[in-house]
């Protein structure tokens, strides 16, 4: 898995406390991997550490054979990892188009931006309809799509997605997961943090379960979905 | 009626300069969430550099824009990199005091070097005026207003069309999301402080055409800048333009119909009224 993401022994401290207590995980290229766990287990911290927003105290992060542990958020995007933050976080007083264009900041000097924009608007047709609208006026689902489109503009080889279905209606959640499938189809790996465990494990090749800043379980998507303990903890019912 | 028209148009002309002078303050607040009390220092420096270039080399104030704008950018970016940046995680009052300190230092250095006497800058066109039908307008006011509008157009272009401008707006609207998109937030901060200071210094240059040159220049116009920014909405170009023009017109009408001595009272009153109304808005 030389070209994917490898995290080894990652520790992150927050105000003295250890938010991550040495986690190791891997995401292969073209793989969708789910990161599960209760609130406060360290899922978002893991994504932020990979992105370079929360500094790693110990441990190493490698991507595509290159160490990216301390290169900073801008360089991480440049290295090919884009982050779709929780709650979409689009720039509300910019148009959808401006949001998308700015997503390409890290690769702005490379060619092919216009073609990339076209591809994304084909992948996310809703954004084409809303192109001139201020992002703050979009619906929750459209905002999530705009955030995904923005991240894709950086031409990433891997997306970190933090709770992309949070607060969306079931039909919109379907669209979001269809989009994730389509993204994988384009050859982009996804590390997915989701509170919707069933949906996440249905789509993911593999998954990790975080608890108290440690990985307590890992396995194939199906395998975890049928695991009695996982079902007990996250679905509130035993395997049927 | 003729008087009224003259005063009105003249107020509009001054108002565009007010807007231009204030915009840097709003931009810096919008991007860094820092109230730049050193804005007064940059305004005053702009006036003095312009006066000095004219006095020593006979350089026309409009030409010295080529000096003061880049100089303002450099000084502003340097102040951000060396001072403000260190305090980025401290409470707002710390940066407020720090920048107030910068202003005090600049003001007192100016007293030291140039003394406290009011000076003025006279060019060949300083006293010229133009009669447009019934309305008589001073040439410097027209020129300065035109340059201010030009500055606004350039600024709007930068903010709307360039990568740097988009990044500036992104950091102002959601800093965290900007960092996630790979935008170097600390470089954007320095750039915003630089642009804000360049605007202030070049505004000083423009205003030296019809205000006297004194180390207290910044005190008077910092207050008016606040007034315009609070009234117009921090980073809203259109709002600030309207607020600046509104203040310019209100001041000129007051000075003409009530008393010149009341000119500067207008901005105080407007500032208080605007703050009270904002407060009511926030509570309502």
CATH class descriptor of chain B: Mainly Alpha
Percent helix of chain A, as a range, is 25-40%
Question: What's the overall geometry of chain B?
Answer: globular
**Sheet of most strands of chain A:** 6 strands, mixed
Integer average pLDDT of chain A: 92
- Spatial strand order of the main sheet of chain A: 6-7-8-3-9-10
CATH topology of chain B: ABC transporter involved in vitamin B12 uptake, BtuC
Total tally of structural domains of chain B: 1
Structural class of chain A: alpha/beta
Number of helices of chain B: 11
Distance between the termini of chain A: 35 Å
Number of helices of chain A: 10
Question: What would you say this structure looks like, in words?
Answer:
- The complex is a heterodimer of chains A (240) and B (284).
- Chain A is of the alpha/beta class.
- Chain A has one domain: Rossmann fold, CATH 3.40.50.300.
- Chain A has ten helices and ten strands.
- Chain A has helices spanning 43-51, 73-79, 96-103, 113-123, 125-129, 140-152, 170-185, 197-203, 221-226, 228-235, and strands at residues 5-14, 17-27, 32-37, 58-63, 66-67, 81-84, 158-162, 189-193, 206-211, 214-220.
- In chain A, a hairpin with a 2-residue loop joins strand 4 and strand 5 (66-67).
- In chain A, helix 3 (96-103) packs parallel to helix 6 (140-152).
- Chain B has eleven helices and two strands; from the N terminus they run ααααββααααααα.
- Chain B has a single domain, classed as Orthogonal Bundle (ABC transporter involved in vitamin B12 uptake, BtuC), CATH 1.10.3470.
- In chain B, a hairpin with a 2-residue loop joins strand 1 and strand 2.
- Chain B has a two-stranded antiparallel ribbon with strand order 1-2.
- Chain B has helices at 2-32, 39-57, 61-82, 92-114, 139-161, 163-173, 175-180, 185-207, 217-232, 237-257, 263-283, and strands spanning 129-132, 135-138.
- By secondary structure, chain B is an all-alpha fold.
- Chain B starts with a helix and ends with a helix.
- The longest helix of chain B is centred in the N-terminal third of the chain and has 31 residues, at 2-32.
- The chains are: A alpha/beta (240), B mainly alpha (284).
- At the A-B interface, helix 2 and helix 3 of A face helix 6 and helix 7 of B.
């Amino acid at each position: 898995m030389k070209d994917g993401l490898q995290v080894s022994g990652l520790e992150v401290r927050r105000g003295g406390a250890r938010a991550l207590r040495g986690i190791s995980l891997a995401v292969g290229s073209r793989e969708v991997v789910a990161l599960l766990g209760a609130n406060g287990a360290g899922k978002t911290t893991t994504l932020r550490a990979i992105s370079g927003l929360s500094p790693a105290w110990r441990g190493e992060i490698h991507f595509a054979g290159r160490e990216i542990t301390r290169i900073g958020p801008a360089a991480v995007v440049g290295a090919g990892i884009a982050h779709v933050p929780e709650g979409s976080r689009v720039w509300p007083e910019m148009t959808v188009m401006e949001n998308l264009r700015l997503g390409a900041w890290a690769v702005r000097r490379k060619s092919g931006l216009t073609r990339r924009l076209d591809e994304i608007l084909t992948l996310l047709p809703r954004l084409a309809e809303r192109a001139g609208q201020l992002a703050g006026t979009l619906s929750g689902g459209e905002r999530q799509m705009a955030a995904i489109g923005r991240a894709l503009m950086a031409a990433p080889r891997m997306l970190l997605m933090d709770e992309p279905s949070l607060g969306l209606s079931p039909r919109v959640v379907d669209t979001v997961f269809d989009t994730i499938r389509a993204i994988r189809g384009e050859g982009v790996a996804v590390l997915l943090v989701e509170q919707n465990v069933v949906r996440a494990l249905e789509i993911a090749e593999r998954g990790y379960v975080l608890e108290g800043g440690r990985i307590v379980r890992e396995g194939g998507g199906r395998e975890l979905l049928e695991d009695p303990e996982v079902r007990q903890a996250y679905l509130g019912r035993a395997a049927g | 009626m003729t008087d009224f028209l003259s005063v009105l148009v003249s107020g509009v002309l001054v108002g565009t300069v007010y807007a231009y002078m204030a915009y840097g303050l709003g931009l810096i607040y919008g991007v860094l969430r820092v109230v730049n009390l050193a804005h007064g220092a940059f305004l005053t420096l702009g006036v003095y550099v312009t006066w000095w270039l004219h006095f020593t080399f006979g350089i026309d104030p409009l030409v010295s824009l080529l000096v003061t704008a880049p100089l303002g950018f450099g000084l502003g970016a340097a102040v951000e990199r060396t001072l403000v940046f260190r305090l980025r995680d401290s409470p707002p009052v710390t940066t407020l005091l720090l920048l107030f300190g910068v202003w005090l230092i600049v003001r007192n250095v100016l007293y030291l070097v140039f003394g406290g006497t009011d000076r003025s800058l006279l060019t060949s066109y300083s006293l010229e005026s133009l009669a447009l039908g019934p309305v008589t307008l001073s040439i410097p006011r027209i020129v300065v207003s035109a340059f201010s509008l030009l500055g606004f157009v350039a600024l709007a272009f930068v903010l709307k069309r360039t990568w740097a401008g988009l990044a500036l707006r992104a950091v102002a609207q959601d800093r965290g999301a900007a960092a996630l998109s790979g935008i170097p937030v600390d470089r954007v901060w320095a750039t915003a402080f630089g642009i804000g200071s360049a605007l202030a210094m070049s505004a000083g240059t423009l205003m030296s055409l019809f205000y006297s040159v004194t180390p207290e220049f910044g005190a008077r116009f910092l207050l008016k800048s606040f007034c315009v920014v609070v009234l117009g909405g921090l980073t809203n170009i259109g709002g600030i333009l309207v607020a600046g023009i509104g203040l310019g017109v209100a001041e000129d009408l007051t000075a003409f119909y009530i008393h010149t001595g009341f000119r500067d009272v207008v901005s105080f009153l407007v500032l208080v009224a605007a703050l009270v109304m904002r407060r009511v808005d926030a509570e309502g």
